Amino acid sequence: MNNPFALTAQRCRPLQVHSLRPIGRLSPLSTSCFGTLARPRHPDFPPFHIFLASQRRLVSSNSKSFPISTPSSPSPHTKPPHKDPPARISALRLILLSTLFLAAGFVMAAAPTIPTATGLITPPSDAETLNLFTPPTESASHIDSYILSHPLSKKYRADAGFTESRPHMRIPQSMRAHNLTGGTLLGEDKMEVPPLCFSSVKADLPSFISIVHVGPALCGHPGIVHGGLLATLLDEGLARACFPALPNKVGVTASLKIDYRKPCPANSYIVLRAETTMVEGRKAWVKGWIEILGEGTEEGSKVAEAEALFIEPKGAANMPKIHSSS
């Protein structure tokens, strides 16, 4: 009869396990039938504690061969490491650049207005205005020569009590397109030449004379100069007569009464005459008329007469003086 313990012992023989040998050949592992693990017996594979000790010695020897450098005091010949600029320096640079670009933009934007501002601050004198107009066409040149050489112009030019000027040329070039008598009404077939004016000098009740040519483009009815144009010339001419008598040499129209006497033909040379009749503080009363220019110095036929009251506004001292050289 078979012994059961012998059969059990036979079944529990030690198992031999071989590794895949990635590093070296390993000794078989002995196990008992109850799963106990025996130590490896292969002579080429040392115990774990011996292997760990050898690795520690290896690390220790490497650290001695390659010592770790530690920071030391810099040599006087050693260049210090580069440091980034402080944030406040970068902010200062940004502010300076922004200010520079802002100033450049302001100058570029303001450059077109500099001639206009200069013309308002320092307007040309009466004598300088006579040289600021150049006739653009042959027709304008003929009209200009006729007015300048007319006996009436020569008479007042020789009178020391009057000063000769072209006041519309005192308006800056950039502003003339927005001025009625100094820009809109000037041009071919209109008033081709700015009015030639004579103003009395140092008079308590000053007077004013203006000579101008009116073309066919200024008509209301065919061949007849528009009455509104005559009213505009009277309003402006009477105002120029009294401006020298006002405290700040400027005023606005308070009232204007016009009586039309006869039609004014187109392509005519006309003369506006105005006389200041009374001045009270900031108020001035003026009368005047428009006549057809004759051959000599005598008065021509009147086409319209007017009376007006002008008042200097408050704050006139701060208004630009583009209508007067004083």
UniProtKB/TrEMBL annotation:
<feature type="domain" description="Thioesterase">
    <location>
        <begin position="223"/>
        <end position="282"/>
    </location>
</feature>
<dbReference type="InterPro" id="IPR052061">
    <property type="entry name" value="PTE-AB_protein"/>
</dbReference>
<dbReference type="Pfam" id="PF03061">
    <property type="entry name" value="4HBT"/>
</dbReference>
<dbReference type="InterPro" id="IPR029069">
    <property type="entry name" value="HotDog_dom_sf"/>
</dbReference>
<dbReference type="InterPro" id="IPR006683">
    <property type="entry name" value="Thioestr_dom"/>
</dbReference>
<feature type="region of interest" description="Disordered">
    <location>
        <begin position="63"/>
        <end position="85"/>
    </location>
</feature>
<protein>
    <submittedName>
        <fullName>Thioesterase/thiol ester dehydrase-isomerase</fullName>
    </submittedName>
</protein>
<feature type="compositionally biased region" description="Low complexity">
    <location>
        <begin position="63"/>
        <end position="72"/>
    </location>
</feature>
<feature type="transmembrane region" description="Helical">
    <location>
        <begin position="91"/>
        <end position="111"/>
    </location>
</feature>
<keyword id="KW-0812">Transmembrane</keyword>
<keyword id="KW-0472">Membrane</keyword>
<keyword id="KW-1133">Transmembrane helix</keyword>
